[in-house]
Design brief:
With 749 residues, the chain is an alpha+beta fold. It is built from 26 helices and 26 strands.
Length: 749
């Protein structure tokens, strides 16, 4: 670097990505949650209120996949929707097929979540069934006999009240040759009745109906994520038309129209303030907790709360194109997508259930034939195993946990696009960051004024410098004028014309003296000796610092230090990331001396400067040999690096359409201190997910052993299944209530 000159890149602020292609991106893998592999053609979305478990999903897939034109299906159990990817499927055929298996559906309006329902009987019929089942158990325990008239008289009405839905779905499963919990439960109840175990048959159906009711309610709470986001979006807006204001639906407001927002109201659409000043609470969108002062020309987002005065906005995006709308879509897509852990669990469950059923059949036949157990006892043991074969708790553990974690992150301004991205964030071992606009503010500033002549202080120097620079539009000129304004220093009065020398600086006159402000070349042209400049500037140039020289009649008056300033949270954030056991490195296209200086200030583990786009990719590849890498950038210039890293993180995504589409994680504001929160939250979420899987498997294994030992009963097996499901759902929902504080907890990798 030779100097900090006019109309040339400033030291520390060199555009880092001049060679990048800004025309688009070819890494669609990061553009939100991808559709299924066979998701060709059109999409048809259906709302199925009775579906909230993979058990129903399996049955639905069984009847829909064979239909002509269906390419693939994706399920959202939290919102109870199914998306068909098809080539000309007949909608009526789809609806009829679903009705035939007890899953009536309606065409789903994307803006409205499906209505949640509970399974089985609700209200007094269910509770009456429970009372009768308990009474049947009590009579049998009191010596009346499992098949006595009083016991059967209590058990049969109980089963009719609580078991109609289960038996009906079991019949649908039998018709479609689907091995699911409804079929297994119906078979177990039928077997219990044939064995004369009427009290157990009644208790099994009651407990199963109760479990479905409780499970559906718990899952509905997980669906509050999207509902809460949608509640942020007003349904109407006050539109300027015909010389007045008219309340209209937000969906009808076109880009460029003027809307007004009164104090206390939510902003209906993304826009730019055209009149008025106010404070806006953007916490629901960006996670920024403090209200922001905004005036004409400033952007505001749909969902933000106007806390001050009446303002008018010029709409910049339609209702379905607002930042809030894109967040809602991303969260919905994240719910519908499957993380690697979830795909593994689904594959495991698909093998686990038939294996246990086969074992139950084998025991029912083999034990009596070998003379180890009577036919009745062996059949009862087999029925208990059939109930244990239900994998619901195991399968539902993953989506509930992931959706809860994603919702909590979105509430704090961190948009994580799916469970796969969350799992990737938990595996990260190295964080690579861009410099300009990521670690630094991306704008130059005068960081220090150093007078070099007697009789000149900072105020005098700034007055002369601002007098020259106020005639220029160069970024350095703005930096000087901003420093003078911040110090309440008025520009000096110049005499005569002001001349701007491209690549050198500014010339002017004041008080009969010839003034100059610029770089080394300008100083040399003004007669300053090269040796004097070397002694003054060599240390700065070695450290990559920028500068401006102020001269009067060829003599040096002052040195103005100019640099791209670090973000306020940069130092603390790097320390917090390293405290989490993460390796932090900087990859920059800026000059190596500048990069070394910034790295030294931030105490980074590693830094590389002067990198071309291909060089960045090679540096990332080298870092990936030590574990998963996250790349943090602006989502546009760093697109190739964001695509290559295991996790792409875009800063300030609320102001960038491209960033929202590009990265796997979008930080909605420009706060670096969200990074430690992101990684801590991801690791905590994966710990909860692992705990849920262990809980579900442990309970299944325990009752499997008890069943083989002849200790477990039918109703105990159902009770265990209920308990496991509710435990994993409750544990997962803890993440939805998580409050990610300002302190970054240390999590050992």
């Amino acid at each position: 670097m030779s100097s900090c000159c006019k109309h040339q890149p400033v030291a520390g602020t060199t555009p880092e990505h001049a060679g990048h292609d800004h025309s688009g991106h070819d890494h669609a893998a990061h553009a939100g949650t991808p559709p299924p592999a066979n998701a060709a053609g059109a999409r048809l979305q259906l709302a199925i209120p009775a579906m909230d478990c993979p058990t129903e999903g399996q049955l639905i897939a069984k009847v829909l996949r064979p239909l002509a034109g269906v390419n693939d299906l994706s399920f959202n159990y939290i919102e109870r929707t199914v998306t068909l990817y098809h080539d000309g499927v007949v909608e009526t055929e789809v609806l009829v097929a679903l009705s035939a298996i007890g899953m009536p559906a309606t065409l789903h309006a994307s803006a409205t979540p499906a209505v949640a329902t509970t399974h089985g009987q609700a209200g007094w019929p269910l509770w009456l069934a429970g009372v009768l089942a308990v009474l049947a158990e009590a009579l049998a325990f009191g010596g009346a006999g499992d098949a006595s008239v009083p016991v059967v008289a209590c058990a049969v009405p109980s089963m009719l009240l609580a078991g109609r839905s289960t038996v009906r779905k079991g019949w649908f499963a039998l018709k479609t040759a689907t091995l699911n919990i409804y079929f297994l439960m119906s078979l177990a109840v039928l077997g219990a009745m044939l064995l004369g175990q009427w009290p157990e048959a009644a208790m099994v159906l009651f407990l199963f109906a109760l479990s479905e009711k409780l499970e559906a309610r718990a899952l509905a709470r997980a669906g509050d994520a999207v509902k809460a986001l949608m509640a942020l979006r007003p349904e109407t807006a006050w539109l300027q038309q015909d010389g007045g204001w008219q309340e209209v639906a937000v969906a009808t407001v076109k880009v460029g129209r003027i809307v007004r927002v009164r104090p206390g109201e939510r902003v209906p659409l993304d826009g730019e303030i055209s009149a008025g000043h106010s404070q806006f609470n953007e916490a629901p969108i960006t996670g920024e907790s403090l209200p922001l002062d905004k005036g004409p020309g400033d952007a505001v987002f749909a969902g933000a709360i106007n806390g001050g005065a009446l303002v008018q906005l010029r709409v910049t995006a339609p209702a379905d194109g607002s930042v809030l709308a894109r967040i809602i879509r991303s969260v919905r897509e994240a719910q519908a997508g499957k993380a690697p852990t979830q795909r593994f669990i689904d594959r495991f469950a698909a093998r686990y259930t038939p294996l246990v059923v086969a074992l139950a059949v084998l025991l029912a036949v083999a034990l009596p034939m070998l003379g180890l157990l009577g036919w009745q006892a062996a059949l009862y043991k087999a029925l208990v195993l059939l109930v244990i074969a239900c994998p619901c708790a195991l399968v539902i553990a993953t989506p509930v946990t992931l959706v809860s974690a994603l919702a909590a992150a979105a509430r704090h301004g961190m948009l994580i696009k799916g469970g796969a991205a969350l799992e990737a964030a938990a595996r990260i071992r190295t964080v690579a960051l861009d410099k300009t606009g990521t670690l630094t503010s991306g704008t130059v500033a005068v960081t220090r004024v150093e007078p070099l002549a007697d009789g000149y202080d900072e105020a005098t120097v700034l007055a002369l410098a601002a007098a020259l620079e106020q005639h220029s539009t160069h970024p350095l000129a703005r930096a000087v004028c901003q420093r003078a304004a911040a110090a309440n220093v008025a520009a000096a009065v110049l005499h005569g014309a002001v001349t701007e020398l491209p690549g050198q600086g500014m010339l002017g006159s004041a008080g009969g003296r010839r003034l100059a402000l610029g770089n080394r070349r300008l100083a040399q042209a003004q007669g300053v000796a090269a040796a004097q400049l070397d002694a003054l500037l060599a240390p700065l140039e070695a450290q990559g610092e920028g500068y401006l020289l102020l001269l009067a009649d060829g003599a040096l008056l002052a040195l103005l230090h100019v640099n791209d300033t670090l973000r306020p949270q940069a130092g603390d954030t790097m320390t917090a990331l390293q405290a989490q056991g993460l390796r932090v490195l900087m990859l920059s296209g800026d000059q190596p001396a500048v990069v070394r200086r910034v790295a030294a200030e931030l105490k980074l583990d590693e830094a590389h400067g002067g990198l071309l786009p291909d060089d960045k990719l090679q540096s990332l590849a080298a870092a990936q040999r030590h574990g998963a890498v996250a790349m943090v950038g602006d989502g546009v210039n760093d697109a190739p690096a964001l695509a290559q890293a295991e996790l792409g993180i875009a800063m300030g995504a609320a102001g960038s359409d491209t960033a929202l589409e590009t990265a796997q994680v979008a930080l909605m504001d420009d706060r670096l201190d969200k990074l430690p929160l992101l990684f801590a939250h991801a690791r905590r979420s994966m710990a909860v997910l692992r705990a849920n899987i262990v809980i579900a498997l442990a309970i299944k294994l325990l009752f499997f052993v008890l069943a083989l030992a002849g200790v477990a009963t039918l109703w105990m097996a159902v009770f265990a299944d209920v308990g496991a499901s509710l435990l994993v759902i409750g544990n997962g929902l803890r993440l939805a209530r998580a409050r990610l504080g300002d302190k970054h907890e240390e999590v050992t990798p």
